[in-house]
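Async update (no meeting this week)

Hi team, since we skipped the sync, here's where things stand on the single-chain job. The sequence we agreed to prioritize is pasted below, unchanged from the tracker. I ran it this morning and attached the output directly underneath so nobody has to dig for it. Comments welcome in thread, and please keep replies under the output.
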Amino acid sequence: MDFNKPERINDKALEILQKRFDKVEPKFVKQVVDWVNKFRTTSGNLVRSKENIARLSSFKTAVNRFLEKAGYNVMVSAFLENFDEIGANTQLAQQELNGIDITKSFLNPFKRYAVNNVVAAMQGQGLNVNLINPLKNELLIAVNQGSSLTDVVTSIAGQLTTSEARQGVLKRISLQASRDALLQYDGVVNEAVRKSYKLDALLYVGSIVKDSRAQCERWVQETKNGKLGLILFEDLQDEIDWADNNGTGMIPDTTPENFCQNRGGFNCRHIAYPVRSANYIKEENVKEVPKEPEVEQKVKVPEVKLGFDKKYDDIINSKDVTDEAKILIDKLEKPKYIVLDKQTSFYDNSIKTLAMYDYPDKKRFDDVFIHEYGHHIDFINKYSLSKQFKQAYKNDLGYLEKKYGTFEEMIPTLLVEWYDEKGKLKSEYYGASDILDSLSKGLVFSKYYGAGHGVKYYENVNSRHFENFANIFQAWSKTDKTAINNIEKYYPNLYKSFLDIIKTL
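Output:
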């Protein structure tokens, strides 16, 4: 996870905005100047007439029309799309740092607020106050006083056009509204996350450049808590006091409660991520608190009896299956039938039947049986079709794309890691490969010949979720944790969602 990404998103967004604005400004200025040149004059001077006064009343409408034609509104809309990217990064960061799944419904109120502020500044009240009203008043005075049209045009064009000496009014409005908007939004969300989840520390990250402020250098390089950039919330007021006394550019009235938003001051490019200190503070920095002795309560592990051929009982009762899985299987509803099939292995929920192909390799037979039993457990209540599990699927898709790129980049990279020197998939990656196949809609199997089910099978979206649940169940059930550790590594959201489901059973 790249925790400096918001800084880069912001820089790129502003760079694109600047380039687009450089094309918008001359078009807009020309249209305004052409409009002003159509006022009635006598001997080159404006005249006070009903026609000119009526023309003045349409100035606001004309400006908005000119902005639309010049491409200004499209430029603003394109900038607003960056709020979605910032939000997605916040979701990934909180999952990585704290294991917290931030939903879009959590983000939406803050996004609406931030977007409305930008729109108001660039297209609404800010535009009225800083551009439309001042220029309209100047034109009104010029009409009343009979000023030279040439002088009026020169003045208005000069105010709107960016030069080496100064920014044009519209550019100044745009840059002021956009410069800190994305990182302010990120900060507001981070502050809400801190409060909602009662997080007790901040991870201060970002680049240090030549003109970085003293407080930012101090906080990014903080090491006293055993993790670079980690500041305990209880120490935050002292740090703000230090910045007020020794730093520069701090926003007045910055407090611990609004620090994520204000950070190191005006136009600060750094990020303050809320975290749980216990996940980061080194053991030697934590004061030992005496604990009450815990009384270990052992749960009796049953001998599972499914009511069919004893070989199926033996698979579950073997040392290769965890006690947790045995307890779960024993207490839940059993399949109605377990049978051998001449062609393949599957679970048919309509008749609650688990069918097994008689694989000659016993380990393969045992693994597939546990996998199909996972389908049976899932279909008791179709847990894999829950909103949480489906969202985890989407989150892991985003997680992998951010980490490895497109599927064309991702799949070859991962399959090289998952296969041995002889080109055979390592057994501990069978589940991981099939989950990747489901995420790629069957490309792993159909295009890259990896383990999975293929494009045709995964055309059914529900099949992707069914197989993901069964694959994770198979790995989770094993006493050898290699497979489940791999699944947790590559699919952290699905793994966490699966565990949340298991806890409810």
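Quick observations from my side:
Residues 385-504 form one domain.
The chain has four domains: 5-181, 199-285, 310-381, 385-504.
Reply here if anything looks off.
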